[in-house]
Amino acid sequence: MKKIISGKVREVYDLENGQLVIVTTDRISAFDVILPTMIPDKGKVLTEISNFWFDYTKDIVKNHMISDNLNDMPEEFRKPEYEGRTILVKKLNMLKYEFIVRGYCFGSMYDAYVKGEPFCGVKITGDYKMAQKLDEPIITPSTKASEGHDIYIPFEDVKADLGEELGEKIKATAIALYNKCYKRAYENGIILADTKFEFGLDENGELTLADELFTPDSSRFWNLSEYKVETSPKSYDKQFVRDWLKETNQNGKQNIDPIPAEIVEKTAALYKECVSKIKYNK
Hints:
It is built from 6 helices and 14 strands. The protein is an alpha+beta fold. The strands form 3 sheets. Strands 6, 9, 10, 11, 12, 13 and 14 form a 7-stranded mixed beta sheet that branches. Strands 1-2-3-8-7 form a 5-stranded antiparallel beta sheet. A two-stranded antiparallel sheet has the order 4-5. The longest helix is centred in the middle third of the chain and has 24 residues, at about 165-185. The termini are far apart.
């Protein structure tokens, strides 16, 4: 067994038997920097939400989940500190793209729309205000950069690389995932404005969903009760941390001060509220 990835949030171990162990830590990052203070139980919340969605969407596409039971994992992980934040998954041949599904005209897509420019090769037509729901969700892929920012690309470039058939299957699958989970989240008071997916191919070449799914770290969640068109809705995740970094002029810096206890508590509560709404309301 060897650690193959130590990311901003996750540690990934290769069991060298076609399986991986993924541990989600309590680390938090903002503006592409890992902060020095952890958010208590954040990793458990992300794991719980993601595992819920993997089960909820298994009728649409296969996923990489094998088990979240520590007894199914090597002895090194059968310890209290790994409980609730560790999963055993199938190792896949991961595709080198992230697939972002956007249901609202917001962020960089809205900026391009205002300028009348295409976004990822897509010309947004219609009369939209900021943060307004699109008539239909769109998919905007990006490359997965090992360093720096990911780069948005047209979907036609993905199909040219992966093939027409696989490209269209990914697009249909991603839209179906978004639509099904958007409905549940909305009914429970959360707007799923956009989200990212990662896919791989299993040993039979079958498309398989991987990484994390519809978490506050991989999606833009808005509180339905506070949502208004033509405003910038506050995200249901790291907003308190981002606001604190901006207020203290630390966004973009590498050496960040410890996060104040009040901000840590508010952020932890927001993550827990999110899992409660999504998983337990309906």
